[in-house]
Specification:
The structure is a single chain. The chain is built from 16 helices and ten strands. It has helices at residues 3-17, 19-31, 61-75, 85-88, 98-110, 137-157, 178-195, 221-231, 250-259, 284-295, 321-341, 344-352, 356-369, 373-381, 389-396, 398-405, and strands at 36-37, 80-84, 114-119, 161-164, 169-170, 201-205, 215-216, 235-240, 265-268, 309-312. Helix 9 (250-259) links the parallel strand 8 and strand 9 (265-268). One manganese (II) ion binds at residues 240, 242-243, 275, 277, 313.
Length: 406
């Protein structure tokens, strides 16, 4: 899209949605920040392409941060990088290191990046009999200590946010006692809340299944919600798009959490089959989720503390990862622009008159039919950013450089 096309497109949008709504959409896109995951730039975790490494894949945290810096320079929206204690702050992948975290914090700063959310990493070695839900006290205590370390790192080097995803559950009926497993998890989490500073924001991620599981300990938003309520304090639910059954109405889950006034967060990605961690696609579902976030006033606020936490959790094995993460950021910006264009007052008026189809069409005029590329383009131009960050990346020569070097 050229600047001229953007200006013409904006005029058309202003005719349909009004100049004020279009201006507000541009300002929201300029304010929107989303964390990118350190793990997208490195080796792929496993699965069908576990042995495959895309050309130029990062081999160290330094190279991951180099790549993240390129993404942030092009998008202007991703200065925060989500980290994992055992992937990013550990020598052996078994114990976390505060010293390494400090070094990574300094490396990030040199690249105009910051550490975002910190995950304590409950999977990898040692959690095959569960982590926080394990019957063995020594296992639970080991992971509790790792969480306290993650909180200390988040406090000193991050944004005071830790995100907890547990591999806990069972592969067969009868393997564990379902009630005890949950009660272990709940007690471990309540102890955690007491052991970490109150100002550490803690988000609990749920996941309906893992390949091969009969049960997961935190399978759905209701369980995560119950656990956060049991913990109290600065605690919320983390919604990962790939962690639901296909028929789940995720925008309704978001609406529930908003009604319960719980400050939550997202791991954005796209699922086709399951927890695919694919790049974010501009789906109707994602646009509707963004409508709930905009109408719930928890996104793109000037006051950061009113915002939910927005992170991308993505790492597919086959495609160019830097292409994929820029694509995701771009898509999320477009979804936000669409949601900003919904005229809520007119929608409520149609709802009040029981105009079901007219309300649906009004909703979809913004969420599904509007071409908001001019909004995102103008938001970038006003920040002196490339109008199309992915094209700029492809033309930058950075990929050839890392293909050769790595
Ligand atoms: C896996 C888990 C979960 C977690 C992510 C990063 O399913 O989404 O947030 O790894 O730790 O995708
Ligand atoms: Mn996730
Ligand atoms: Mn996942």
């Amino acid at each position: 899209m050229t600047e001229q096309q953007a200006k013409i497109g904006l005029q058309s949008l202003e005719l349909e949605f009004g100049a004020a709504a279009v201006k507000a959409a541009i300002e929201a896109v300029k304010r929107f920040k989303v964390e990118i995951p350190s793990w997208i730039f490195g080796p792929f975790g496993g699965g069908r392409f576990g042995e495959y490494l895309p050309p130029g894949a990062a081999r160290s945290i330094e190279e991951k941060l180099d790549d993240a810096a390129v993404v942030n320079k092009l998008t202007g929206a991703t200065e925060f990088v989500a980290m994992h204690v055992l992937w990013d702050f550990s020598e052996d992948g078994a114990l976390g290191s505060y010293k390494i975290a400090r070094e990574v914090y300094e490396m990030a700063g040199e690249r105009h990046l910051k550490i975002g959310s910190v995950s304590p990493t409950y999977f990898l070695r040692g959690s095959h009999r569960n982590s926080y839900g394990a019957d063995e006290k020594s296992t639970r205590e080991h992971y509790l200590e790792q969480t306290v370390l993650a909180a200390r790192i988040a406090q000193d080097f991050g944004v005071k946010l830790i995100t907890l995803w547990f591999p806990d559950g069972s592969n067969y009926p009868g393997q564990i006692e379902l009630r005890r497993n949950y009660e272990n998890m709940k007690n471990s989490l309540m102890t955690t809340r007491q052991k970490i500073p109150d100002d550490i924001w803690l988000l609990i991620e749920y996941k309906v299944f893992e390949p091969g599981t009969y049960s997961t300990t935190v399978p759905d938003w209701g369980t995560a919600f119950a656990l956060t309520k049991a913990m109290g304090g600065n605690t919320g639910v983390l919604v990962d798009l790939g962690h639901h059954f296909h028929s789940a109405n995720i925008e309704q889950i978001v609406a529930r959490l908003l009604s319960e006034e719980m400050r939550c967060g997202f791991h954005f990605n796209t699922r086709y089959a399951a927890d695919d961690d694919h790049a974010v696609e501009p789906t109707p579902e994602m646009a509707r989720i963004f409508y709930e976030l905009v109408s719930g006033k928890v996104i793109a606020n000037k006051d950061e503390h009113k915002n939910w936490a927005f992170m991308i959790d993505q790492c597919s094995g086959r495609e160019n990862r830097i292409h994929a993460i820029i694509h995701s950021v771009d898509t999320l910006q477009h979804c936000l622009a669409k949601a900003m264009l919904v005229d809520q007052r007119a929608l409520h008026e149609l709802q009040g008159r029981d105009e079901i189809v007219l309300a649906n069409r009004h909703f979809n005029d913004a969420l599904l039919r509007a071409d908001v590329r001019p909004v995102v383009a103008m938001a970038r131009l006003e920040q002196l950013l490339p109008i199309d960050p992915l094209t700029d990346y492809v033309e930058s020569g950075y990929q050839n450089k890392i293909d050769k070097e790595r």
